[in-house]
Amino acid sequence: MARVSRKNKAQAILEPIEHVYNTAIYIRLSIEDSGTNRSETIETQQYMVEQFVNAQQDMKLYSVYKDNGFTGTNFQRPAFEQMMDDVRDRKIDCIVVKDLSRFGRNYIETGYYLEKIFPFLNVRFVAITDHYDTLKNSSSDDMVASLKNIVNSLVAKDISHKSATVLHQKQQKGEYIGAFAPYGYMKNTDQKNHLIIDPVTAPIVKEIFKWKTEGIGYILIARKLNEMGIPSPSVYNYQNSRYKAKKIPTGKATMWQGQMVKQIINNFTYTGNVTQGKTVESLCNGLPLTKKDKKQYVVVYGTHEPIIDEATFHNLEKMSESIAKQNNYSRKYPFKENIFKGKIFCADCGQKMIRYKGVSKIGTVRYTFLCNQYEHNLKLSKCSKKCLGEPELTDAILSSLRAQVELTFSLENKLEKLRSTKEYKAKQKKIKTDLKNTEKLISKNLMLCSALFENYNDGIIDLVEYNRLKSDYLKQAEELEEAKNSLLKAQALDEKILSPQNEWIKAFRRQKDTTVLSGEFIELMIDKIIVSGYNDVEIIWKFSDELAFLTEFVGGAT
């Protein structure tokens, strides 16, 4: 074995670390992978990646992000999205995974992140067992990574196809494959794909069908159930430990809703005939969740004990069709796009408000926004009654927009005058100089820190001195990084907010002639609309933080 000279070793150690990366560890395990290979468990992945990160001089662990039970065929994963938020906030500039398949199995999207997004955001990416490091790779390494991404994508498609085939075969045999038994049933502990009667909830299901037969509407049935204190299906499942994740149901799931009642009434499984395959979705092929026609459902008769008879079910089915025909008069009026969809929230419960279409006897159409919680739980709801008309909301937004545009032009003029003063220019020049000096100090600190261990190894300093100096250098490094970040923020503030070219000013300047609202406008300009009291509207503009800061900075413009 060739001997490494002490001189070269010393030079290697004395080589300054150019940059210490704030590193994120990302770990993912899909349901399909769970339990199939011990090397892929969440704990094993985390241990392996942490060992790797701790061994790197130029990496400092920021946080560990875990997605357990999420497919790699898309990037809609909570921990991944949180990690990308931290990347965009500049908290992270390095991501380490065990291998490329843990990051993603869709080769197009994975390649887009590796080749476009991460270089753009200046993020280093490391896949340990694939020996892939964007800091050190050559073009041939990039080609190998692309090939591995293609293979990972093909593996995901193969797994998806095999899983779908097995599940379809089970459906055709009458085995129930849903994650949870329909309300009123529970899974047989000896045969998990077989439904048995739940003695606690089955009587409630019978009552629901009885009420509906008597002509009571879905929302009124939901109100009755809530007033009787009967837990919603989600709450009942949680109370009986039927969820793997111990998360307490929140939002709509905490109380009965008309839609829940409707799903029960329309579920043919309650007649003792398991009915599945109502939707289709293929993540690998990019096919979104799509409802299938009733004729395409997979129905197997006589699979379990019925809660209601088929005659009752079909009678209710005919009744629903008859009511739908009677209400058909409202459908002859053209549907108007809901440009406020997902933007309006009840101030009391925090949930999105629902748009309802009303048609008068003389044929005029009026859309209103209602609080769903209030409508379903009149006596129990803590929400106030709200009935916000769409025309009134549109007028309120246009009025607020005009005020915002006037404010924009006023602030823009004041800002331009302020930026032309000698004091402002001198302040920006000082920030630039301070930043340059701080970066020099950071480089010096890193060099001294790198040489410290060599001094200890050569006996120049003892262990006590080594630990003391190391602690001092690390503390100084943190202080310098904080100072640098503070200066960078001040610099970014000048370039992005205290500039006539800031996004907020440009956005409102473009809207100065707007008199008609569109979906694009709402999406671009409005973060959310909060309705309190009876119909008090608060509009949260997307650039409200910038506006507040700018207003304060120029000494107030209103």
TrEMBL record:
Pfam name, any one: Zn_ribbon_recom
Coiled-coil features, chain-numbered ranges: 463-493
Record keyword Iron-sulfur present: no
Domain spans labelled Recombinase: 182-326
InterPro entries: DNA_bind_recomb_sf, DNA_bind_recombinase_dom, Resolv_N, Resolvase-like_N_sf, SSR_resolvase, Zn_ribbon_recom_dom
Superkingdom of source: Bacteria
GO molecular function: DNA binding; DNA strand exchange activity
Ranges where the Resolvase/invertase-type recombinase catalytic domain occurs: 22-174
Alphabetical keyword list: Coiled coil
Keyword Coiled coil: yes
Listed name of the protein: Site-specific DNA recombinase
Protein's organism: Anaerotignum propionicum DSM 1682
Lineage: Bacteria, Bacillati, Bacillota, Clostridia, Lachnospirales
